[in-house]
Amino acid sequence: MQRNPTERSSPRLMQLLKPEAAGAIAATAITWLKAPPYLPHGRKSAPRPLSLPSASLGKMGNLEARLATEKRDVRHAQKLRYKVFYKDGGAIADAATLLARRDKDAFDKICDHVLVVDHAGKPTMSGKPPVVGTYRLLPQAIADRHGGFYTESEFEIASLIARHPDLRFLELGRSCVLPRYRNKRTVELLWQGIWNYVRQQQVDVMFGCASFEGTDPDKLALPLSFLHHYAAATPEWNARAQASRYVEMNRMPKEAITPKAAMQQLPPLIKGYLRLGAMIGEGAVIDYQFGTTDVLIVLPVAAIKGRYIEHFSTEAA
After folding, report:
1. Distance (Å, whole) CA 40 – CA 35
2. pTM of the predicted structure, to 2 decimals
C-alpha cells in the first residue's frame, strides 16, 4: 500500500473535520456518475480474483444493508433514485425516464447495488421490505470488462489507475436516501455495508463524483476554492477533469478563504468523505442535465482513520 496521504493534509482542515458530525456524513447527499461508457486505453485488469460478496452487509434494528440479488431489487433502487433525483431534486428527465419512472442506465446491469431496506416498513407489491436507501458500486475488474468507469466521462481516471497497477479500485455512485430516513442510523448502516463490501472485495481505493447543486461555479467560488487549497489530492492520487469539461476550482486566493464558512457550504456527502480521509481531484465538471457541479473524490483505504474503521466494523483491526 502507499503511504497514508493524510500525513500531508492541512492541519487546519483536520481540525475542522471533527468526528462529532460523523453521523450525518451523507444524509442528504446525492452523487451522480453519469454519461455513456467508453473503452479506456492501456488499462490492466486488477490482478486479484474477485470473491463473491455476501448478500447481507449489516443490520441496525429493523434496517438491513444488503446487496441486490434479483432484478426486481435493482428496479426498487431505480425507483428510489428517480424519486430523489428527479421528483425531489433538480434533474431533468427525458421521455424514457419519465415513462419508466426509474433512474436507470446500462451500467445498472453490471454494478453491485447496496440497499437499505426497512423490515418494519410497508411491503412492496412483491412482498419485499421497502428500499429506503441505496449506493451503487462498480469494481475495477467488472469495469475493465465492460468499457470502463462512469467517472471517466468527467475525470481522467485512467492515469490515476495506471500509477497504481497493483491496487484494486472501486467506484461509488448513485447515493440517495429517502427524506424520512436521512438520519444517523441509516447513513451509518449504508457506510457499514460499503465497508464490509470493501473488506470482502479487498478494495484498496474508492473514488467517485460528488455534486454541488447548481451550475454556476462563481456562486460556488468559496467551497470550490476551499477544496482546492485545503483538500487537494497529492500527486500520486490526483486526477484532472477532462480537458473539454474542465472548470477551474481555484477561484479565490487561500488567504481570502474563511475555512469555517466554506465548510458550511459543503454538501454533507463531501464533508463526510473528507472526514474519512478523502482527497479532491483537480478541476470540477458542470453537468447541466442534472443541474450540478461535480468534483472528484479519491479515498484510499489506507487513508481512512482508525476511529471510523472501528466504528463501522467491530471485526476490524
Report:
1. 14
2. 0.81
| C-alpha distances in Å from residue 165, one per residue of 140, 161, 211 | 11, 6, 28
pLDDT in tens, 93-128: 999 999 999 999 889 999 999 999 999 998 888 788
Q: Indicate the pairing of strand 131-139 with strand 112-118.
A: antiparallel
Answer with the residue of higher pLDDT: 312 or 209.
Answer: 209
Show the cell assigned to 50: 474477485
For 41, 44, 104, 199, 225, the CA distances from 53, given in Å and listed in that order, are 29, 23, 23, 9, 39
- pLDDT number for residue 314: 52
Q: Tell me: the pLDDT tens digits for 230-246?
A: 999 999 999 999 999 99
Q: Is the pLDDT of residue 303 over 50?
A: yes
